[in-house]
Amino acid sequence: MKNKITTPLLFSLLTGCTFFFACSEEKNQIPSAALADKELCLTDTLSQLIKLDSARMQNVNNQLQLVGKIALDEKKVFKIFPLVGGHVQSVKVELGDYVQKGQTLAVIRSSEIAEFEQQRIAAQSALQVAQKNLEVAKDMAKSGLVSEQDVLAAQRERDIAQAEAQRMKQVFSIYSIGKGSEYVVKAPSAGFVVEKNVNADMQIRSDNDTNLFTISSMNEIWVMANVFESDIAKVKEGYAAEVTTLSYPDKVFRGKIDKIFNVLDPESRTMKVRVRLDNPDFSLKPEMFANIRIEYPEDKQLMAIPAHALVFDQSKNYVMVYRKRCDVEQREVKLYQTMGQTAYLTSGIEAGEQVVSKYPLLVYNASKAK
């Protein structure tokens, strides 16, 4: 009887012990998911390669797509008109040529040149007389023979005569008028010949109001973009703009909106905005079609990080959150949108947390391999 009782009791104890140790062993096991989230410790080499940036709350920027054309900077456009009528002896340039300031554009023979020589002589004589009258008035004022008003009047006459003499001097300089009946049309500024309305052996009438040439410097250029009525509130002066063209589809030209023309075209229902661009290599030409992207702020704030801090894997976006060298966490984030160099997130990270923004893929791969 004793053996019958002892055997079941021993079996129960052994079974209980087995269950206990099995439970203890199961409790001490680390789940596979927890092993996957084990903290990553960066190597010395990887620590030196990476760069960190902090997540921050900021206004969300969006983009507005516009179309437009390249145009000349009107402040750097020079229209050259004939001084007098006459016969065009020769034309030295062609449309599209680059010319230096003072370069000869055309030579014109005219019988009217003699009149300009007379005007120049008359202007110089008038200046000499006005200068002499001013000196006399000053001497007489010292003796009390004339008033200060008389001196001021003489000075005004001298200034007027001086301005006219200077004007004639500039005319002779621009057109290189010398003795004889020929004058030379010269470029008033360096730039490209963007318009040419004259050929050799043409007869120019004195009442002709058509310019001979148009010269423009193209080291700065305008982009005239069309904004639809529904998008007018989204554009303001100073907003950043990115411009691409059909000729250079892979090249992005960056500038800013520097003027808004607050007038709607009645037919297209669009408003013009102007973007100024540097054009040092003259790659942008007038009348080129352009696509313009304008960045504008939305009325919302989201968490922002550098766009290159994102790692895209299996249809999900991840960042590597860095707390210290041996505490780097792989974390999934929800992307709202990417704008330029900035990614806006709706969840997954808090303000002030640091993310790996340089070589995040190396760190991500290291975390997957651990």
Ordered list of secondary-structure elements with their pairings:
Layout: H1 2-28, H2 32-36, H3 44-49, E1 51-54, E2 56-72, E3 77-80, E4 86-91, E5 98-99, E6 104-109, H4 113-142, H5 148-175, E7 182-186, E8 191-196, E9 203-204, E10 213-216, E11 220-228, E12 240-245, E13 253-264, E14 270-278, E15 289-306, E16 311-313, E17 316-324, E18 327-339, E19 342-347, E20 354-358, H6 360-369
Antiparallel strand pairs: 1-20, 2-11, 2-15, 3-10, 4-6, 4-9, 5-8, 6-7, 8-10, 11-14, 12-13, 12-15, 13-14, 15-19, 16-17, 17-18, 17-20, 18-19
Helix pairs in contact: 4-5
Describe this structure in words.
Residues 1-22 form the signal peptide. The protein has 370 residues and is of the alpha+beta class. It has 4 domains: 44-59 and 301-369, conserved putative lor/sdh protein from methanococcus maripaludis s2 fold (Beta Barrel); 65-75 and 218-299, Beta Barrel (Elongation Factor Tu (Ef-tu), domain 3); 80-107 and 188-216, RNA polymerase II/Efflux pump adaptor protein, barrel-sandwich hybrid domain (OB fold (Dihydrolipoamide Acetyltransferase, E2P)); 111-180, Helix Hairpins (Orthogonal Bundle). The chain has 6 helices and 20 strands. The strands form 3 sheets. The protein has a 6-stranded antiparallel barrel with strand order 2-11-14-13-12-15. Strands 3-10-8-5 form a 4-stranded antiparallel beta sheet, with no helix packed on it. Strand 17 and strand 18 (327-339) form a beta hairpin. The longest helix is centred in the middle third of the chain and has 30 residues, at 113-142.
